[in-house]
Each structure stands twice: as C-alpha cells, then as structure tokens.
Amino acid sequence: MSFEEEWRQAHANAAANAATRLDSAGDRQRDGRAADLSVRRDDLGVVGGDAYKLHDSLKRDGHHAHESTHTAATALTTRNFACGAELAKVRDKWDGQLRTLRDACAQISNHLDYSMAAHAKDDEHIGGELLAVSRINAYLK
Question: Which residues contact 119 (CB under 8 A, 6 or more apart)?
Fold first, then answer.
C-alpha cells in the first residue's frame, strides 16, 4: 500500500470517527441529564480567580533571577566569554515571555469578570421584559 493510499484511508477513518463522536455527543449523560455545552457562573469565577492568582504570582516571582542573571551575563561578557551575551539574550527572552504570559492571565481574568457582569445585566434586562409581558397578558385574559 502506498503512502497516499494509507493516508487517504487514515483520513477517512478519522473523519468517520469524528462524525460518530459528534452524532453521539447529545446522548451522553451527566448527573442524570443530557450533556450540553454550558458553563455555570461559579465555574467562570474559579477560572478567572485562578488566572488572577497566576498573574499575581508571576508578577511577584517571575523576576527573582533577573538581577543575578544580569550580573552573571555582565561578568561573563567583560571577561570575553561569548556565553555572556547569550545569557543576556536568554534573560531578555524570558522577560518578554513572562510579560506575554502575565498579559494573557490578566486578559482572561478581566474578560471573565466582564462576561459575568454583562450576562448578569442581560439577565436582569430580560427578566424585566418578561415581567412586563406577563403583566400585559394578565389584562388580555
């Protein structure tokens, strides 16, 4: 069997398995109910809280080796070791990656806070609309 034939067969098998999994997704049970794609507000709070804690932890502990790495890189460079400049590059790369990770954690936390507040506001608005409709229906009977 050639590679192309084997690849087509593997691709067809994967597509068939994916279709089967998608077709049966609604059949799964969880706590006696059909599984669905929903999330509860307390779940979002946990994820947002963890993101906030991770952000604070990275802010506090992410730079603990920065000064010693800088000192070592400077000392190695002044003694004409090529690894001094490379160590400085590693430190700079670490700082950039740390900043990116902290920003991502902050964005996750802030977005989940915003989402929960927006949905609560939407729920309140819809509840008010439904209350007004139910009052009108009472007069129509």
Answer: 41
Q: Are 44 and 112 in contact (CB under 8 A)?
A: yes
Q: CA 103 to CA 93: how far, in whole Å?
A: 15
How many CB atoms neighbour CB 116 within 10 A?
15
Stated as kind and residue range, the H or E segment containing 33 is strand 33-34
- Pick from 25-34, 35-44, 78-87 the range whose average pLDDT is largest: 78-87
| Model pTM score | 0.55
Q: Measure CA of the first residue to CA of the last residue in the chain; give whole Å.
A: 75
Spell out a b/e string for 84-114, using b for 16 or more CB atoms within 10 Å of the CB, else e.
Answer: beebbeebeeeeeebeeebeebbebbeebbe
- Cα(71)–Cα(122) distance, integer angstroms: 54
Neighbours of 48 (CB within 10 A): 20
What are the boundaries of each domain within the chain?
A: 1-37, 39-140
pLDDT digits (tens, 9 = 90+) for 64-74: 899 999 999 99
Residue type at position 26: G
